[in-house]
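Fold sample X.
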Amino acid sequence: MDEREARLHRARRVWGGAGRKLWHSPVEATAGRRLRELADRADADGCGGLPLDAYGGGPVEEVERRVAEELGLPAAVFFPTGTMAQQVALRCWSGRTGSPVVALHPLSHPEVHERGALGAVSGLRTVHPTDEPRLPTAEEVRNHPEPFGTLMLELPLRDAGFTLPSWDELVDVVDAARERDAVVHFDGARLWECAPHFGRDLREIAGLADTVYVSFYKSLGGISGAALAGPEDVMEEARVWLHRYGGLIFQQFPAAMAALSGLAVELPRLPSYVAHARVVAQGLRAGFEEAGVPWFRVHPETPHTHQFQVWLPYDPDLLTAASLALTVETDTVLFRRWSSPGAGGPPGVAVTEVTVGEPGLSWTEDDVREAVGAFLARVG
């Protein structure tokens, strides 16, 4: 562990122990506490009596049943990681369409966070209908000059600010892909919280796609794990590739039990988090304006989900240090780690991601505004 990682580890311990925060981070608890919470929640949810899994079955099979039910799709398969789930989904569709080409956004997870795995592991090639910081439009999909077999849409597009199209735009994009005889796969790692923005339930949203991947730890508070959902025959093939990719693990009951708990407890709460994120975003804007910050951005201005970006014109290490100082001195977590915008981004600015979860529901707009003032007082 280098010095930077050591500082971040120490910061996480401080942030994890704070009494006042907008959301709980899954990496800020201790292992013992996490296991005790998992056992208690399993008993409270009525899942503690499920038999243990062995290469599937037990709680793993129950997660698969629940996901298929929630999404209104015929079947689902539990995967240890979302990267593997999407590799398998896109590989299955490549074989069925006869095309190794996947159309997706250059900011999508496989392009930014998987080290070129689609090409290196699965022999797939990607094309980009747009490089705008949003998902492609129907016109861009129709007019893309190269053929492709699968259109992958990340909902929401995290690295563009957790942004979503409108419902009509999403329907039009899917229709445009169908006109090209392409199948549609949703990277739904954060699909669970998209329903309020679209004004549709999860079944109607998932029903637009041929396959959907969902994650259990990003919004549902799980330990790890993901699921791929879709037609029975595709899921049968997905199980074959799950084994070939090394994902058929002997026992996964801790991850599966945490997923079941998240589906029972966190999923019904997500609409309230999404609604309150708008209150928090407004409080942040008011705080920055009141403090006379020369430039800032809350993006999207009205959050599409319970997560959004905040941009400020300062060094990221300076802002991370101010975030930590605020917590040490006031027992309050407003922001956590800040980052530079990366290659090609504007110099002299930093960005962080804000999530609103159950702890944040008690924060008023004035609470947020006052916390912004206290944070900025520690910058510099």
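Fold sample Y, listed below.
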Amino acid sequence: MELRTLRYFVAVAEELHFGRAAARLHMSQPPLSRAIKQLETEVGATLLDRSSAGVALTPAGAVLLDEARGLLDRADRVRLRVAAAAGATSITVGLLGDSSDRGATRLAAAYRRQHPGIEVRIRETDLTDPTCGLRTGRVDIALTRAPFDETGLTVHELRADPVGAVLRADDPLARCDHLELADLAGRRWFQFPDGTDPIWRSYWNGGEPREGPVVRAVQECLQAVLWNGTVGMTPLGHNPPEELTVVPVVDMDASRVVAAWRRSDANPLIRSFVRIATAAYRD
């Protein structure tokens, strides 16, 4: 059994969905399905029950999932020990704007437990660079939000958060249970500066050209709403000051929390970081 095939199997077993697993692995579904069938042939057992109701682990699949996780963890530890012997004892992580995410907090604790000898350097960036310095080489990996230009990068989704409109508490729309983007037409929205990734800017503008004050940081966004009655978007679950409120926007795509790194970077610390991050954000 190849480690790559075991990674494929773990992804399918955790997602219980071939399409989501393929997206997580950054591959198409047919070769993933073929790899799992080949793995079942190699072990001589059916690992997954496939039906119209979905995908479920068989007893044999549950055993292999447990064993595969252990093998992959051991392989990552081998890579890390070799990397440490070669002098790679630190990793630089970029964080976007708000580092209080509970997933990031769990990740930090899990990473310390599993790799106490690795120094983690943190670089927090403002909202004008969703890659957190990846393209300039300031960081090895970024914990950030998509969408943005992914050219030359590998992007792994960790979670998807619904979004809402940040409004003053006395705004007439603040009394609504939910909103649609059309309800916000004609309002002033906060803007990111010229030169910011256009895919990123378009997403936070609800896909439409907008006008409004230029902001660069989370607190500037909130202050623009508080002082000017500006409209902005935020992931649900981020609690604003009591003078503001967040109303869900039901027709806007979810904001995806992702780990991103340069496709050409062979740093073995990255693979282990992504594995631990995936588990931390899933809990």
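Sample Y note: The first strand starts at residue 48 and ends at 51.
Also: The longest helix spans residues 59-85.
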